[in-house]
Specification:
single chain; 129 residues; mainly beta; Virus Head Decoration Protein, Chain: A; 2 domains; five-stranded antiparallel β-sheet
Length: 129
């Protein structure tokens, strides 16, 4: 991970457990949950662990930087990414715009479960190619 921006505080339910590095979905005004499915609005990546029922109702979220991701399928360099149907996996965007685009691939994983570096930029323009 290369931190290019400081994390930002978002609201989170006290009952939710969030592992550090999890992809987070934007659900309402500055509020996040764990990604619930394919192509949802992405807030960013959890910058810290959140333990369930610990009394905390905020969590720091990265909205920019270079991170290591896990592919849900083959991805080409420079192609826009979105959340895969499998938790914490990424796939090529298919007609998604706005916050559904999480960023773009900096490497080209050849298949499912392969790790690769990507540029985190939720809501950005997606593909650079």
């Amino acid at each position: 991970m290369v931190e290019t921006e400081l994390p930002i505080n978002f609201k989170v339910d006290d009952a939710l457990a969030v592992p550090k590095g999890s992809l987070l979905e934007l659900t309402e005004s500055m509020t996040v949950v764990l990604i619930s499915g394919q192509g949802v609005m992405v807030a960013g990546i959890a910058a810290e662990e959140k333990i369930a029922n610990d009394g905390k109702v905020t969590i720091k979220v990265y909205m920019g930087g270079i991170f290591k991701g896990v592919a849900g399928a083959a991805v080409a360099i420079g192609i826009g990414l979105m959340a895969d149907a499998t938790a914490n996996k990424l796939e090529t965007t298919t007609g998604k715009t706005g916050a559904a685009q999480i960023g773009y691939a900096l490497e080209a994983p050849s298949g499912d479960n392969q790790t690769f570096f990507f540029r985190l930029n939720p809501g950005g323009s997606g593909a650079i190619a």
